[in-house]
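Title: Request for sanity check on DUF4296 domain-containing protein prediction

Description:
We are preparing a figure and want to confirm that the structure record we downloaded matches what your pipeline produces today. Could someone re-run it with the sequence below and paste the raw structure tokens into this thread? We only need the token string, no images.
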Amino acid sequence: MKNTFLCLLLVLCSFLTACQKPEDVAPPSKLLPQEKMVSLLVNIHILEAQVDASALPSDSARALFLQQKKDLFKRFDVTDSTFQQSYRYYAVHDKDLDDIYKTVIDSLGKREEKFGVKPELP
């Protein structure tokens, strides 16, 4: 499920970036550095996996995810708006987003290896 989500997200980003040239987009005033984006995205994907595994009804799972994501942003001292603006900026600069997601995928893969988690097969 996680890999499907990542693939869908990358495809969506590709469509979004096709409409605008990277040089046309100015960075937001509070652009998050790539390293911080990687850390946030890794934690968001782990949070999604934990909520998916909780077997809660979908409305409860969504509420739990949103609350925990809010707590995550607070821990990282980032607002949702700053995260969204930074993500949009990196999405327009698709090479940057590719680099970010390569690192996210590597980090998640290393965590799977460390904890002995095997990815689900379709």
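Thanks, this matches our download. The first helix runs from residue 2 to 17.
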